[in-house]
Structure formats: structure tokens, C-alpha cells
Fold this protein.
Amino acid sequence: MKLGLVIDLDTCVGCHACAVACKQWNTSGTTGPLTDYEPYGEEPSGVWFNRIRHYEVDEYPNNKTVNVPMSCMHCDDAACVTVCPTGASYKREEDGIVLVDQSKCMGCNLCAWACPYGARELDEDAGVMKKCTLCVDRIYDEKLPEEERQPACVMTCPTHARFFGDFDDPNSELSTLVRERSGYAMMPEVGYQPVNKYLPPRQRPKAPVVEKKAASDGASLIGKWMQRQKEAFNDLGKRAR
Amino acid sequence: MHPALSVIFFTVTAGAGYGVLFLLGITRMANLVPDISPDQLTAMGIAGLILVTAGLVSSTFHLANPKNAWRSFTRFKTSWLSREAVFAVLFYPLSLIWLACEWLTGNTGVTQFFALLTAILSLVVLVCTAMIYASLKTIKQWHTALTPVNFVLLGLLLGSLIMGLMLAQQGLSTSRLLGLALVVLIMAALSKIIYFYWIGQPAGPTINTALGFTRATVRLLDVGHSSDTFHTKEFGFQVDKVKLIWLRCITVLLAFVLPLLLVTGSFGDVGFTTMVLAVVCAYAGVFVERWLFFAEARHVVNLYHGFQRT
């Protein structure tokens, strides 16, 4: 099994609900708390497993706002696991989820240095590295109704821009979406073979450009009247010929 | 990258210590200093070990959870940090056995064997430290063979100058050692200057490949967080370009030019005072160099925060 996410950049509206749902679930989950520093202070900060950024792609009139949620890509060739000196970071054989064993981490930050996607954040209070668990404590919970055995971010997304499933199954919803909508990986050139895929925004007809006619070239009323007389005179001339 | 002082102090000081022990090992095997006594050699070896220890202790200050540091010996197969930890710890018994043999039995076959092991292991630790950085594909300025070359050469440069200082203090002949130091100095200077030019070449991921929009311009509209995060604090560090140029010049002047002039005797005899000056200059220069090594490193996660390229 190769569990992961597909995120549809066409329908994501950038509402940050996935990040909030993630924080809410995971702060009391297996790797919680997701510590906040000065939550009511002037510079509130803290640990998040999922962050959403907003970009403008291309130039007017073809420009488009694209909202990009990013969490751990659960890479096939996860360098964060390779560089970890303590064995705290590991990738599960059975489903490919990359996890941190909080009791082994020594907080050296090397895995965060090795991650190109900013998926790992140090909890400064606990002194250990934390990251997206793909809600490993939800997706296998048999006490939950089956349709709720999904990551919190996927459950909550109001525009249904997030999909969870198994990439190893060629007929899963994920594999079909990636196949049909040209799903792609981010920053593939680093070579970590990220599992999560993104669906690009659909091609839409570009916004019509209304060319304003040069109705007046700044001339005065008298000037316009004289222009009309001149055109009428020329027309007369043409007819005479 | 955020230049953490504990890590800078660690790589520079422990590097110098390993340089001293490498050169002492070479001295024992190749008779680099003709009339050095085993006692003097032992004392210098202990001085080198003190430098190494000071560095290693400092390196634990940047761990957020040092009580788990002992676990870093467990992933020798994959992690360069683990390899460094294993070799750095293995270094102590071997070098101490050598120094004990040196002190108790003088120059014998066994002494030479352990001197050789210590010398090899000092180079191995230096390379492992450098490979922690050089193995990271996310930081183009580190992911190069020049990183281990620079770490080893600068460690040997500081080591040779510090050993020269100790020889001068003991009134021993420094000429052969300083000859070697000059060769190291010129190689270190060349490789560092090549590095400065090399990191100026545009290469690596851009904001377009980071997001997958490779057929149009991309710019950040909103970064999504309202104040500093772990990533902006760790990777967002940036220095003014003019300041960088100045710091590079200071590095070259302090680490290479001044020690070169001092050691070649341009300012008179190469005595104890000259060697003190040379060591102070070179240490300060390499410290600035290591600060720059971190400050100039641009992590690819910055692309998601709006950088156009790394």
C-alpha cells in the first residue's frame, strides 16, 4: 500500500480549513500537542503540519490565483529518514507513511534541513520534530464509521479539493484522478519521489479583453464638431466623384 | 540558513583539533619535526584533544533534546551525522592509546600503528562532519564536493598553525611543518575562492519547478502565516549582499593572506609571537568563513516563501 493525498489546485479556494482541522485533530493526537507560542501575544506562532500559501501564476490577462496547501509528501525516497541519526524518523513498510518516534528524536533539525517541502517543524517546547502523520490515528480507527476513516484535512475540505487513498491501486480514486487530470509532484528534481500529487488548474477561456475605443482623443466639443464637419465634407467629396 | 554559533564553534574548533592530531600522527610516522620528544608530542596531542572536546560539547548545545543524543550512534548505515558521532567517539580510545604508548614507551612500532590510526580517523571525522552538509540536496551551496574539501583543508590549516605555535613555544624547529602549512594554506585558499565563484552560478530549483508551474511567471501573493515560523527562523536568514562581499574579503584576508605573510616571515622572524598572531588571524578568518557557509546557504523551502530561485 502507498497511502497519500491528491490535492486539486483547481478547486482549492485557500480557506485554510484543512490546516485548522489538522491542528485541531492532531494537537490531541499521537504526536500532539502542536504547541503554540504566545497564542494571544503580538506575534503568535506555533507548530502546524499543513500550511496553505497563495500564488499568482502568469501575467494579466491570463493570471490566476492558485492556493497551494502543503503538508508531508510521504516521499518514496525520504531523505528525512535517511539523514536521521537516531532512527526517530521512519517510513512504514506497510503503507509508506513517514512518521517521527517522539521518544527517540534528539531535535538536531537535520531532517527539516533535508526536507524541501517544509513539512517538518520543531516543537520548541517539547524539543522534538513533528510532522504530518496522515492522521494515522484516524484512518485505522475501527471505532469510527468507515467513511470517517480519512485524514482530518480531507474530511473537512469544503470544496472537496483533497482526496485520500492508495496510489498502489491503479483503480483507486487517486490513481484515476492523477491519470485523467495530469497529476504531478512538486519539485521532482530533488529526487525524493514525493507520493502526494497535485492536480493543475483546469484550462479556462481567458478573460475577454475589452479594448476601449478612443472615443475622444482629448479634443474639445468644438474640435469634435469640426472633426464631424470635416468627415461630412470628405464624404460629400467622395460622393461627387 | 540561520548561522548557529554553537555549530560554527563546533566545526571550526573540533576541525582544528582533528587537524592537530592528524599532523601529530604524521609527525610520528614521517618525522616532520626532527627532535620532538615523546613527552612533548603527548602534551600537544592532549591540547588537540581538548580542542576536539570543546567542539563536540558545543555541538550538543544546538540539540533541542540532548538527552536522546546517545541514540545518534544507531543509524550508522545511512546517516552521516550518525557516522560522525560514531567516529568521533571511536577517536578517543584510539588517540588516547596512542598518546599513552607515546608517553610510556616512546617511539615503537605499536606507537606508530596507533599514530597512523589516529591520523586516518581524524580525516574520517572531518569528512563525516562535512558530509552532513554536503549530502543535503535541498541546499545547493552545500551539495558539492567542495564542502568536504574545504572542511578538511581548513581543519588542516588551523591544525598546522596551532601545532606550529606549540612547536615555537617549545623552541622546536618549525620549518618543515610550516612548509606543509603553506601548501595546505594555498590549496585551502584556492578551493575556498573557487567555492565563492561556484555558488554564484544560478542553478537548482526555482519557484516554478517548486510549484509545478513551469510555463508562466509565479509570484507569492500571501505566505499564509502572520509571524515567524520554524521555517522562516531556520531557513529565512538573509544577509545584505554588500555585507557578504565584505565578509568574503575579511575571510580571505584573515584566514589566508595574513597567515601567509606571517608564516613566510614577511614581518621578520617566525617566532612564538608571530605564530600567535597567525593562529588568531586564521581562527578568526575560518570562523567568519564558517559563518558565511551557513549564512550564504539558501534552502529550497524559501521558494515556497516567495524566493524566485535558490
In short: Chain A has seven helices and eleven strands. Chain A touches chain B through 61 residues (CB under 8 Å). Chain A has a mean pLDDT of 92.
